[in-house]
Amino acid sequence: MTAARCRGLAIGLVVAAAACAPPSAAPPSQPSPPTGPVPDVRVGLRVGAQSVAIGMQGTGMGLANGTTVVELHAERGATVEPDGRALVLRAPGTEGRYERIVFVSRTRDAFVTVDNRPYRGVVEVFARDGGVSVVNELSLEDYVSGVVNAELGRREQREQAAAEAQAIAARTYALVNRGKFAADGFDLRAGVVDQAYGGVTVETGLGMRAVRSTRGMVLTYAGEPITPFYHSTCGGSTAAPEEAFRSAATTSYLRPVSDRDGDGYYCDVSPRFAWSVEWDVSELRDIFREKVPSVLGIAGERVDVVRDVRVQRTGASGRVTELRLVVEAGEIPVYAADVRAVLAPERDAWLGSNQFRLAVERSGGVPTRVRADGFGWGHGVGMCQWGAIGRARAGQDARTILTTYFPGTRLERWY
Known about the structure:
Number of helices: 8
């Protein structure tokens, strides 16, 4: 049996298992007929790793060039390490050197594990740039099942529509970005560079129902899948792309959308709806000295004395699009995409959002403390995840949630 055929068999078993699941709720729209098979997606789980543990929940095997090179089971795992342009595979009683290995489970409803985390589909490892790359190849629907709760957290039944909206957004994002990292041997990264993906561990019954009830559905504009940005909490209004990103493509479906709900906001249920950060000016100077060179490419020595920090300009949603750092030598402008990185709460973190007000305490005209009072969490563009949860609690369906946050779009079934 070839490696390619084993991958197809393993993925087919997973899809067949899903097909035997109980009937799900009706989809949140009237979809068009399916147009093709479920595509596969390749997800980069590790890049440049120096050691990876591969295991099996049941029984399985590792194949190299279509030949079985190792048998694995629940009590017998393997480690893979880089060795130049090749890999060294070690398991009890077995050691070999290969360019590429594909790991497949033979046991129905038991999965290949990577560093003790189980994944549907198959797992492929190969050497690249002195490290080990680990790729999970699986059906797009199974991938979305591993994204919904990783992104949205565990949800209640009354929040089902939010999970459906997240499933559609995640599926659309994956379709639009297939091949994004083709040169590296996979389509998407399993993290914030693309979408959080946790494999089988993060799956829940509600999340799986959300995926099944929206199977094949994507969000489109003018007949093409959109780029469905989303974030944790908008804090009252979503943002225009130019308020958050360096290279912001203007699109009619990405524009500020109010999240107001009567006297409050749909996303005010978020634990990060409002926040504040306060710095001693000497602490802030040290942060600027580190961030200004790494983010702006300006020598940190310019930040000798902090004379002032002020908001110079705001955008359509009220977010800060230009911040000015006033130092002894003059003023340093910080624009929208860099504000959260430069005005950091601490060295290894970003500011919650760039929707904030600044207050500067002074003594004898010299700043002593700076305080930021802000709203929302994340870049603010596209779908507000906590807003989607609030809207679901209020009775809105997935179609309403998505077409509110992405004006002018529609839902279509692509397979």
